[in-house]
Structures are given as structure tokens and as C-alpha cells.
Specification:
Length: about 325
């Protein structure tokens, strides 16, 4: 009997131990499951935090890029209208322009003092030409002195032509005709191309360093139109400057004054000017050789001359037209 009771107790204890072992196993399983879930949750949370950080960083970058683009667009808009103050120094005072003008007048006066002695009758007729009649008269008078006083005559001519161009004073076109009558085609043509380009470049520099604010104040609408036109031709700026010089769409004096304000590089401006003025200069100087036979402008700019200049103008903008077509395609 006692043996049976002991066996029963042993069985009970074994069952209890088995149950305890099972409970321990279940506990371990549950612990591992909970641990795995916690790790998964932690990983998910970490991923969410990482994603949120990335999104925040991207948002900050996008905001910074947006600000940067806005700043760039603002700068580009200002630059297209020649208002990029970071690149352009403050203009010099306007009284310097008066001094430069006065010095130029003094140089011309000095040349006239050293000019060959003219008869009283001829002195009264010496003035800037305003029409073909004046050109004929000056050509007839000065040709009598040119052979014996070539250097002083050609120097005075060049300085006056440069002066008119630099200060945007009308009359230089008639001097182009006069050069043909005085110096012929071989000398007159390159001379006028050079002094016209030099004068235009000086006008560019005066506008940039002294008259920038004055030009903006006097011609705001024209500047805006020219700026819009230039912004569309930036890739072929040189060809466009040549085109403008050949065609009469914009007056030359305005191109001289506006170009530095609209960020046209001076070398592009000068070379484009030199090449662009060649066709009209050639016709004017050639006509000046026979100035006495010319009665009106139609005798110079006939249909053939006009068509020739139109063809040259078309050639100058041909690269721009081709590039636009390629972009469209």
C-alpha cells in the first residue's frame, strides 16, 4: 500500500515537473515572440523616423533650391535688363562727362589752330555737314588743302568723327560721304570703319561708367524692348549685333548707349560694330568719290544696294534661325 502511494506521488510530481517544463517552454516561446515583435516594431519605428528625417531633409533641400532658383531668376531678370549691381560699379558723377566733353572740344580746337590757313571766304563755309549740299561744299573746299596738309586733315577728320560718335551727336553719316571725296575708297573706307567703331566704343564706355542711370531714366521703354530682344538672342549675340548694325531697326546711338547696360560684352560689341557697319560705310564712301554727281540719297541706296544689304542682314542672323529650328525639332 505504501509502495502504491509512493508511486502515485512520484507520478504526480513527474506530471507537475512536466507541466512546469511546458510552462517554461511556453514562456520562452512567448518571450522570444514578444522580443521579435519588439525588434520588428523598433525597426519599423526606426525606418519611419529615418523616412521622416529624409522627407524633412528633402523638404529643406527643396525649399533651399526653390529659394536659390528664385534668387537666380531674380538675378537673371535683373541681369537681362542691365541691373545686376553686383557686377556693375556705381556710376561716376555726371560732372566728369562735362570734363570729358570739354577736353574733347579742346583737342578739336587745337587741331583747328594747326589747320592749314584758309581764305576768309572758305573759313565762313567750314562747318559740320547737315545735308548733301554741305558735303559737296566741304569736299570742294578741303580737297584743295588735303594734298599739301594730308596728316592734319585726316587727323582732324578722324577726331571729329570719333567725337560725334562718342557723344551721340548727329552728322557722322555725312562725314562718311566726305571721306570718299577727300581720301578715296582705299583710305576712306577703313578709316571710317575704324573711327566709327572707336567712337561707338567710347560711347559704350561713357554710358557704362558715367551715364548709366541717366540712360535708364531717359529711355526705360526702349531699354525694356531691347532687353527682351537681346534675351532671345543671347546664344548668338555677336550675329545679332552685326544684324542691328546692318539694319535700321534701332538707331546706332541707342545701341551704343544701351549695350553696356544690358551686359553686351565690349569685345562682342566692338567687333560686331566694325563688321556690321562695313556695307553701309562702303556704299557711303564710294558714293563720296562722286559726291558732286549725287543729288539725293536714292542715287546711292538704289534697289541693288538695298537688296545687297538685306541679304547681308539675313546672313548675319542665319545662325540664330538655324539654331531655333534645331531646338524646335
Amino acid at each position: 500500500m505504501e509502495i502504491e502511494n509512493q508511486n502515485i506521488n512520484n507520478n504526480i510530481n513527474n506530471n507537475i515537473n512536466i507541466n512546469n517544463n511546458n510552462n517554461n517552454i511556453h514562456s520562452n516561446i512567448n518571450y522570444n515572440i514578444n522580443k521579435g515583435n519588439l525588434e520588428k516594431n523598433n525597426n519599423i519605428n526606426n525606418n519611419n523616423i529615418s523616412t521622416m528625417n529624409k522627407n524633412n531633409i528633402n523638404n529643406i533641400d527643396n525649399k533651399n533650391n526653390s529659394k536659390s532658383n528664385n534668387n537666380k531668376n531674380s538675378i537673371n531678370n535683373n541681369k537681362s535688363f542691365g541691373l545686376y549691381s553686383l557686377e556693375q560699379p556705381a556710376p561716376l558723377p555726371l560732372w566728369l562727362l562735362v570734363i570729358v566733353f570739354g577736353v574733347s572740344i579742346s583737342v578739336i580746337a587745337f587741331l583747328f589752330l594747326n589747320f592749314p590757313s584758309l581764305s576768309p571766304q572758305h573759313k565762313q563755309l567750314i562747318r559740320l555737314p547737315k545735308n548733301f549740299k554741305d558735303v559737296k561744299l566741304l569736299s570742294d573746299i578741303l580737297s584743295q588743302y588735303t594734298d599739301d596738309n594730308y596728316f592734319i586733315v585726316i587727323t582732324t577728320f578722324g577726331v571729329i568723327y570719333t567725337f560725334l560718335q562718342a557723344f551721340s551727336i548727329p552728322g557722322s553719316v555725312f562725314l562718311s560721304f566726305l571721306s570718299g571725296g577727300l581720301f578715296g575708297l582705299k583710305v576712306g573706307f577703313p578709316l571710317v570703319c575704324f573711327v566709327a567703331t572707336l567712337g561707338a566704343t567710347l560711347s559704350y564706355l561713357i554710358s557704362y561708367y558715367i551715364g548709366r542711370n541717366l540712360v535708364r531714366k531717359l529711355f526705360p521703354d526702349k531699354l525694356k524692348l531691347f532687353s527682351d530682344s537681346l534675351s532671345q538672342k543671347r546664344d548668338n549675340l555677336f550675329n545679332y549685333i552685326v544684324f542691328l548694325r546692318i539694319t535700321p531697326f534701332l538707331p546706332n546711338w541707342f545701341i551704343n548707349l544701351a549695350s553696356p547696360l544690358l551686359d553686351v560684352p565690349i569685345h562682342t560689341f566692338a567687333i560686331g560694330t566694325f563688321i556690321g557697319i562695313m556695307p553701309a560705310t562702303f556704299l557711303a564712301v564710294k558714293a563720296g568719290i562722286q559726291i558732286q554727281n549725287i543729288q539725293n540719297p536714292s542715287d546711292i541706296f538704289d534697289l541693288k544696294s538695298i537688296l545687297t544689304m538685306a541679304a547681308l542682314a539675313l546672313l548675319s542672323i542665319l545662325p540664330t534661325l538655324i539654331q531655333k529650328k534645331l531646338k524646335v525639332n
